[in-house]
Design goal:
With 485 residues, the chain is mainly β. The protein is built from 3 helices and 38 strands. Strands 21, 24, 25, 26, 27, 28 and 29 form a 7-stranded antiparallel sheet that branches. Strands 8-17-13-19-20 form a 5-stranded mixed sheet. The relative contact order is 0.15.
Length: 485
Amino acid sequence: MPDRSRIARIGGRAGRGVLGLTGIAVVVVTLGIATLVTLPTVEREPRSSEIAPSPSEQQRVCPGPLLTLAEDSTQAQAASSVGAASAVYGAVAGDSLAQIRPEVTEITAVDDSNSRQPPLLLTVPVQNGATVPPLVAGSQSQVAATDTLGGLAVATCAEAASDAWIVGGSTDIGRTSLLLLSNPSTVLATVDVTVSGESGLVDAPGATGILVQPGEQRIISLAGLAPNVKSPVLRVQSRGGQVVAALEQSSIRGIEPGGVEIIGTTATPATNQIIAGVRVMTAVTEETVTTGEGFNADTPSIRVFVPGAVAATVQIGVTSADGTTGGTSTQVEVEPGIATEIPLSPLAVGSYSVRLSSDEPIVAAARTATDSAGKKDFGWFSASAPLTGDFAVAVAEGPSPTLHLVNGAAADASLTLTPDGGTPVDLRVDAGASVTVPVASGVRYVVSGGEQLFALVDYSGDGALSSFALNPPGPLASGIRVYTH
């Protein structure tokens, strides 16, 4: 007969085991219920505030008078100024549109052996209590009429940058291109210039490590860096101080001047580029495009460049700038690293907006020419970046200035064009559409009401053709988020 105490001990152990299993089951059931029931949570974002930077002073550089290379073969790379440019500039407060007078100083053109009128530096200081930067605009114009230089050259007064692209120019026979590098800062700028052409990247000794002292302008013959290049595309990068880059191109047709232009920077590489206005002075047909050496040099054309390593499929749409007539569309394949000229035809006399859509980032600009009243000239029309919010336009002196506007936003735009001391003009630009507006020489305007506008001002007359694109100011310093304990 078993010992009762032993049975009791066994029963106690068994009871404790059952109780243990029961406890585990309760815990499991409880955890299961907890997974099915969403428990309330309490979240709290850390307290912080966004501190916006105060507006800083604004600077613009007008490139200065037209230049010509010395006729003395012993100083073939020496430049000399020809005549003087006429500048129009101004600024208004960004929050009140009150007039602000820029401070005007001179930049020393160290390579100009005859600097009768140096480049101008426009500075708009910070206004007391201002919370947004001022709207600053300036442009210059000059008409040349010498034995070697003739035509109209208009240029914008531009802001310095550390990375810029110039699409235009030529160092082919009969053509001269001068690179203008202006340093408005107080810091030495070290500049590297990369030149590509119709045959690809150009080995350009002396194009790196170019020193531009503070407050000075360097003038460099592009032929000294890249001779015999028909279709150059330049990338200008600087370290230390930022620079304003521009390219003066002139040509000789036989023994007569064939035109002159100062080419500003174009929009940085992107898959979509817009040239707000391209002026065609002579009708172009399919028969007049081709010559024995390719297409006629006076044919309206687009110069396109793919900076990357992959070929691009580019769709080029050309429409009437005033929206009165339909447009044309062309698709082309552009090899990477090679500047490609694409003729635009057929085109009637008039002004056009050009849109380029690509599956790879590109840079682009257009070129047209005129030959009338026994005078020849050409003009470059650069792509530009979109302008957001209000912006200012300063219209330099010249024949028939016209403001071209393209609405890149998804909504229609109701704009107001306000001249200095004049009556405001209301404009409507449908989404994706464009308009042209005649403006007055020597007058400053403020354009308000747009969200994403592309803008360009062109000039045209007998033997005169030129333009400049408008670009937004460089970005201010980013806001700083501060977290409090």
